[in-house]
Each structure stands twice: as structure tokens, then as C-alpha cells.
Amino acid sequence: MAFSRRRMMAAGCSLAAATALPAALAEGGKGASGKGVSGEGAGEAGVKEASHWEALDKKRVKCTLCPRECEVADMERGYCGVRENRGGKYYTLVYGTPCTTHNDPIEKKPLFHYLPGSKAFSIATAGCNMECLFCQNWNISQFRPEQLETIDLPPKEVVARAVEAGSAVVAHTYNEPVIFYEYMYDCAVAGRKVNVPSVMISNGYIREKPMRELTEVLGAVKVDLKAFTEKFYRETCHGHLQPVLDTLKVLRSAGIWFEIVVLLVTGLNDSADEVKRLAGWVAGELSPDVPLHFSRYSPYYKLQLPPTPVRTVERAYDLAKKEGCNYVYVGNVSLPGKANTVCPGCGEVLIERLGFLVRSNRIKDGKCPKCGRVIPGVWKTEDAFKRGIIA
Ligand code: SF4
Question: Which of 55, 112, 198, 255 is the most buried (most CB within 10 A)?
Fold first, then answer.
């Protein structure tokens, strides 16, 4: 049965609650809360004045957080469904109220050059600023906060829970963290004090100013570059390509660690020509040292195509290497050796991976132990907030 976004965002849905809440409770959550977020500016659960908006006439507001720049009338919400105009002031409705928490390997995000082998305490809320027809987390991303059960978890408690769970980082993930910007920002600030960096697992659909502010407090970013054509972004994700490319350039200039993932969708963005152009742009406009992951699509949500042929993923890997990318990886598929980190200087295998498991890590002091080449990345927690690591 096909659902329209409008229908899902407007109607309550027990499926979403049924899938999101058990994960929260499994991690020891406190259950749905009717209380406000203690001591951090919110009265009603999840409600806090938003960052990045402008007042317009007749009590309307303009949200300046993401490229949609929604203009919102009083008592209405923006496209993402989690930001609301109340009497001419703009509010986030998901501050401190995640709908799920989980402790994942950081390789699942995936971040391969940022504290490999560590755990990421992962949180998500309702809502998204895109609608990808293949979304794996549509049962939270395409819903409004009141349609999901949530827990009360202010930023300091997020960090405390991460420490308690033995996680090296807090990951803002599953749905799009741009739309819970204020919560992510405050978690990042709280984590810096105890060296538990926040990482943002994002579609990169954010305006420059808020992104630059985030680079000051986050540890790393992963961006899904969903394709290299405007057509795919418009028709399959209900977004646009150029703002994402702009975000990648902002990350590069800010010097924060970042990696890129491309989900190869059967017949829609997986041609040799598109992969070559994408990889050439990454190597030329960003750096050959930015890790580039190609992931295999499986049917989800509204897009029911056959899974990407394994040969297509392998071809993308080879093409990106030929275009000059030094660190290329595959995901959601078993291709022996192609998820390993290999020294571009001497060919030595440096990190051996099996699925999300790091089987061995031979990087020593950030260098290849055989030829001494510097391997870009963040390898020690002491360096979690280091800047300028891609030469
Ligand atoms: S963050 Fe939400 S409200 Fe703001 S511009 Fe983007 S979609 Fe619209």
C-alpha cells in the first residue's frame, strides 16, 4: 500500500511507534515522557526556541536552517514536521526527546577513518527534510513527533549514557539530524567537555551558516551523496544536488573529518559515467583522501527495484580508484578486501574489516608501518577534535 508523505505526516501510525520505541526501551530508556526537558529551556516536552529563523510579516516565519527555507504561518510547521510557528516565534518540537537510542559500531555509520573499532551511542528523532523513496528508516523519518513514543533525554544525559555504554562517540543518525539541530548542537557541546565527540550522519541538506557553526563543535560528519544528478535528487529524494555539494565544500574548508557514502540504486544512479563524474569531483574538488563508500541498495519503502548487482558495486569501486580516490570502500555486500583500508603508497593492508567488525588495525601513530605514509583520519580519542587533517 502506498502512503503519501502528507498522509503519514498527518495521521497517527502505530507501526512507527511499534518499531521505534522498543529499541529505546531495550537500551534502558525511561519511556514516554510528558515532562519538559529539565533545566535546558523547554517547558513542554521537546519544545525549545529554534535556531536559524527570521520573522516575517503577519506572524509568519522563515526557517533558515536548510535549503528548503520554509515560510511558515502561525501554528503551522515546516516540511520536516518537527519545527512549528507559535505566535510568530519558531520552535523545535524534538529537543531532548529521541524516539530511539542504540549502541552501534562506528563502522555501521559508516565512518572508517574516525576512531575505528569504537562504539557510537546513536540517537534519532522523528522527521526529515527530504523524502527518499528508498528510505530505510521511513518509519521514523516520515513521521511527526506526536506519532512516535519518545524518551526524555537531555544532552548531558545523552553523553552520560554514551559513557555508561562504553561508547567513544554520540552519533546523530537514523533520521536526518539537521532537523534536530539544536539538540545535536547541545549534545556536541556537552560531549566536548568530556572528550565524547558527536558525529553527524547526514544528507548534507543544510545551509552554510548552521553547518559552519556545527563544524566548530562536532567531531566528524558523514554525508550521503545520493547521486550526481539533479534529476535523481528531485525525483527520488525530493531535494536538490547543489546544496549538498556546497555542504561538502564547507566541510572541506572547515577541516573537520568527513566521509561520503553513495547508495548505488539499481538503474537510477549507478551508471559508469555518473560514478566516474562523482568520484572525479570528490578527488578533484575535495581531496583524493576523502573516503568514498559505495553501498548496495535493497528495496525499501516506496522504491521496489531489484537489489543493485554486486558487479555494479565492484565496478564503482574500480572506477573511483581510477579517478584518483585513495580510500574507496564497499558496503552492504561481501567483496573480499574491498572494505579494507590499504596504504595508497605501498599497498599494505592497514585495517582489515569483516562486516562491521575491525579484525586488525596496523596503523601506527597515524602512519603506514611499512612505508611511513601518513594515513588521513582520526585514530586516537585525544585527536577527536583535531582540524585540518586532510592535506
Ligand atoms: S529545517 Fe525543516 S522547517 Fe526548516 S527549512 Fe528545512 S524543512 Fe523547512
Answer: 198
- Mean pLDDT, rounded, for 84-94: 98
Residue 7 located in a structural domain: no
> Residue 232 CA to chain centroid, in angstroms?
19
Q: Is residue 152 part of a domain?
A: yes
Based on DSSP, count helices (H) and strands (E) in the chain, helices before strands: 10, 17
In a domain, 304, yes or no: yes
Q: State the cell numbers at 353.
A: 574489516
> Separation of 158 CA from ligand 1 center, angstroms?
24
Q: Could you tell me if residue 71 is inside a domain?
A: no
Number of independent structural domains in the chain: 1
CATH number of the domain at 275, please: 3.20.20.70
Pocket probe for ligand 1: among 179, 182, 184, 238, the residue whose CB has the most ligand atoms within 8 Å is 179
Confidence of residue 387 (pLDDT cuts 50, 70, 90): confident
CA of 66 to the centre of ligand 1 (A): 5
CA of 380 to the centre of ligand 1 (A): 35
79 alpha carbon, distance to own chain's centre? 19
Can you give the pLDDT at residue 30?
27
Structural domain span for residue 209: 100-383
pLDDT in tens, 151-197: 999 999 999 999 999 999 999 999 999 999 999 999 999 999 999 99
> Cis bond leading into 369, ω under 30°?
no
Residue pair 217/352 in contact (Cβ under 8 Å)? The answer is no
For 211-260, the pLDDT digits (tens) are 999 999 999 999 999 999 999 999 999 999 999 999 999 999 999 999 99
Q: Which residue has the cell 555504554?
A: 165
Q: Please tell me the predicted confidence (pLDDT) of residue 5.
A: 52
Whether the full predicted model's pTM is greater than 0.85, yes or no, is yes
CA gap 57, 265 in Å, rounded: 43
